[in-house]
Amino acid sequence: MGILIVGASIAGVRTAQSLRKSGFADPVTIVGAEPYLPYDKPPVSKDMILPETDGAPVPLLGAEELDALGVDLRVGVRAVALDPVARVVVTDTGEELGYDILVIATGVSPRTLPGAEGLIGVHTMRTVEDALAVRAALPAARHVVAIGAGFIGAEFASAARSHGADVTVVEAQPVPLAHLLGARVGALLGGLHEANGVTLLTGTQVERFEGTGRVTGVTLADGRTLPADLVVVGVGATPATGWLATSGLPVDDGVVCDERLRVRGFDGVYAAGDVARWPHPMYGVEMRIEHWTNANEHAEIVAAAVTGAPAPRVRPPYVWSDQYGHRIQIVGRPGLGRAVRVRTAADDHQAAAVYADEDGTVVAAVVVDDPRLLMRLRRAVMARTPLDALDAPF
Asked: Is residue 55 helix, strand or coil?
């Protein structure tokens, strides 16, 4: 029985590793669109563009580990179509790759803005090529603009500031991350920008880019024009499902799966990682999660389903972000409740927030620079602890 994994992503590679750990000995092929050995994505907007690093991608596994894994890894090969009846994936070279079991792990593609295409100096942050281009431009950049104050924009702004650039962050919401974390916690995190010499402009949209051939500025909806010789657009991403357009697979903000990540209505087809939309066992509703940890956990779930093993225990969503020397960690789903307890320390920006739903159950937490507290709150979210019973220093 041969398994084909489309996507040399964290979800794709970890699925292969989990299969081998589960004793699966049949052939496994991994197809990756980028011409690089599998690498870790989070450093693209963090470590790879910091001045004190060498800018090299962080490999997901070493040469010996890759050899021991015993997979047929094909990089620089893009899947362009799927025929689930014939069980064939067509690549950009015209090759047809057959499979018994297919795992879709193609991740997401970054959104961009009108006018950005073909304009030198305007970038997204998703791939090695993105990081290398931005890293090369940063030392000479004088005026840098990050569009979007989400994690990608904020991490880029932090790295750009470490190069000594004049940095402005433009955010459409009145408060950064308010739609995810609420206004109070969003304002606390937004304060990190201003505390580190970054200009934060909120409640404003980008109207257009200035420049012919190369960007020279960013004009806002209120008429202001910001000088810019380097711009990074961080306004979210969409599932990389275009190659599935003629496949008949259920695609609705991702590939729609069941609780074992089996694609609904298609035997032998699975999806994992950012591209998978599934009913999370902790919440009972369909969701798609763009988290590094989620990709790892999906790999274990797919491997268990393929090999017939019991499904592993599902943990609450978890994501982290490194900004200006601080680590921001989020566990659970803040959107299911509201921040009912918030602790701050203005001198060092250490902060924490606990979110509870209408029934008083702890559903999420945000913690800055306190890993021990994060672990305690993570256990509370996992156990659905009542707020009144929460054992935490609040």
From this structure: coil
| Predicted structure pTM score | 0.95
Residue 346's pLDDT is what? 60
Looking at the structure of the chain, the number of domains it has is 3
Q: Do 365 and 293 reside in the same domain of the chain? A: no
Rounded Cα distance, 137 and 338, in Å: 41
Residue 153: alpha-carbon gap to chain centroid: 12
Q: At 246, which amino acid appears?
A: T
Q: Does position 333 have pLDDT exceeding 80, yes or no?
A: yes
For tokens 């201003």, name the residue.
Answer: 194
Express each pLDDT in 68-88 by its tens digit: 999 999 999 999 999 999 999
Residue 170 clears pLDDT 70, i.e. is over it: yes
Single-letter amino acid, residue 57: P
Answer yes or no: is 138 within a domain: yes
Residue 118 pLDDT: 87
Residues 245, 154: one domain? no
Residue 48: pLDDT above 70? Answer: yes
Return the structure tokens found at 290. Answer: 């763009």
CB atoms within 10 A of CB 67: 10
Residue 171 · residue 148 · CB < 8 Å: yes
The pLDDT, as a whole number, for residue 385 is 94
What's the sign of the alpha-carbon dihedral 98, 102, 103, 109? positive
Please report whether residue 181 resides in a domain: yes
Amino acid, single-letter form, for residue 113: L
SS (H, E, C) 32-52: ECCCCCCECCHHHHCHHHCCC
- The token pair that represents 177 in the structure block: 């991350």
Q: Cα dist. 183→119, 173, 236 in Å?
A: 34, 10, 19
> In CATH, what number is assigned to the domain containing residue 157?
3.50.50.60
